[in-house]
Amino acid sequence: MNYTPQPAAESQMGDFKDFQIAQLKKTHPDLKVLEDGIKTINGKKVGFFKFLSQASDQKVFNYYFFTVLDGKILLFTFNCIESIQKTWEKTADEMVASLKVN
């Protein structure tokens, strides 16, 4: 989890998501986005994207999700090796669906 100092509003969630993906692609040209979007969870907009990236010896499944808290971005990340993605992606989806921010 990372509570960024960057000011943000819920209306900027899509732009923030797109910016994060673009920045990651600059440092990881092999990055393959699997899914991305904006969801409403427990009354809050939550941006997310799932992607595969190459580590030194295998691919890694990554799941970034974020929301706005007190006018700043609250960012969460989850990752696991691709070979266990099917087992853990459902758990990660459940974590995102359980997010509650006041």
Structural overview:
This protein is α+β, with helices and mostly antiparallel strands and 102 residues long. It has a single domain, classed as Protein Transport Mog1p, Chain A (3-Layer(aba) Sandwich), CATH 3.40.1000. A five-stranded antiparallel β-sheet has the order 1-5-4-3-2, sandwiched between helices. A hairpin with a 2-residue loop joins β2 and β3. The model has no long low-confidence stretch (mean pLDDT 94).
The name of the CATH superfamily reads Mog1/PsbP, alpha/beta/alpha sandwich
Enumerate how many helices there are, as a single number.
Answer: 2
**Class of secondary structure makeup:** alpha+beta
Order of helices and strands: EHEEEEH
Q: Roughly what percent helix?
A: 25-40%
Rg, Cα atoms, Å: 14 Å
Shape: globular
Counting DSSP E segments of at least 2 residues, the number of strands comes to: 5
What's the arrangement of secondary structure elements?
Blueprint: E1 2-7, H1 13-27, E2 32-41, E3 44-54, E4 59-69, E5 72-81, H2 85-97
Antiparallel strand pairs: 1-5, 2-3, 3-4, 4-5
Properties at a glance:
alpha+beta; 5-stranded antiparallel sheet; 47% strand
Can I get a quick summary?
This protein has helices spanning 13-27, 85-97, and strands at 2-7, 32-41, 44-54, 59-69, 72-81. By secondary structure, it is an alpha+beta fold. It has a single domain, classed as Protein Transport Mog1p, Chain A (3-Layer(aba) Sandwich), CATH 3.40.1000.10.
